[in-house]
Write a structure and sequence with these properties.
The chain is mainly α and about 220 residues long. It contains 11 helices and 2 strands; from the N terminus they run H-H-H-E-E-H-H-H-H-H-H-H-H. It has helices at about 10-25, 35-45, 50-60, 80-90, 90-115, 115-135, 140-155, 160-165, 170-180, 190-200, 200-220; strands spanning about 65, 70-75. The longest helix has 22 residues, at about 90-115. About 30% of the residues are buried.
């Protein structure tokens, strides 16, 4: 989809918003190389200096990564995600600890805040993960499992918590992929969803924290 031409006022800010939108909508996925500076200037209808400033700003916020002599790549889907990348880096333990903080509280809240529609979504996603587990489709299983965790967070109906977790999208997926290991041993989450369905906050919290504690226990000490 071609980028819309910007107005003459606030050109850099408008360019930033359109570039950010291309990332947020998935037009430019994480790890994708974005169009060249001349191509962006033509698509946006602005000068190359404006494009350069916009790209620099998004690189500073962590959304883009400029590789000298190669080009500019998408590093994260949002400023929050970019900041979390810088904070967590590749340390799986750090990522799992942050996930635990957010997911335990999300499960507790979801036990009383979830709607009937939320529960339908959770059970559908759970069935999908189990089918992918059975089919031994590792990568698709990891993505479906990450989707299930995000759906639980959304079921808490806390906008701030949801946005914080949304910023973890890439690192959550990476942690799921890294920690999946043997699909037969990966957590199935049936008890967690049932606790949410039953409105049992204490059990939902224990289930959410339990499997993450198991993953943390498997990691070698630093």
């Amino acid at each position: 989809m071609p980028l819309a031409s910007t107005r003459r006022t606030g050109l850099v800010d408008q360019a930033i918003e359109q570039l950010r939108s291309s990332v947020a909508t998935g037009e430019w996925p994480v790890n994708a190389k974005i169009p060249t500076e001349p191509e962006l200037a033509q698509s946006l209808g602005v000068g190359r200096n404006t494009v350069r400033e916009a790209v620099r700003a998004l690189a500073h916020s962590g959304i883009f990564e400029v590789r000298q002599g190669d080009g500019t790549y998408v590093r994260a889907t949002s400023e929050v995600s970019g900041a979390l990348h810088r904070l967590c880096g590749s340390e799986l333990r750090d990522v799992l600890q942050v996930r635990r903080c957010l997911e335990v509280e999300a499960a507790r809240l979801a036990a009383t805040a979830r709607s009937a529609e939320d529960l339908d979504t959770l059970w559908q996603l759970w069935e999908r993960t189990e089918q992918l587990r059975s089919d031994r489709r590792d990568e698709e299983f990891a993505r479906a499992d990450a989707d299930l965790h995000f759906a639980i967070v959304r079921s808490a109906h806390n906008a701030v918590l949801t946005e914080l977790y949304r910023g973890l999208t890439e690192v959550v997926l990476a942690s799921v992929v890294t920690s999946t290991g043997n699909l037969d041993e990966s957590p199935q989450h049936r008890e967690l969803i049932q606790a949410i369905a039953d409105g049992d906050q204490a059990l939902a919290s224990r289930e959410a924290g339990g499997f993450l504690d198991e993953l943390l226990d498997r990691l070698p000490e630093r």
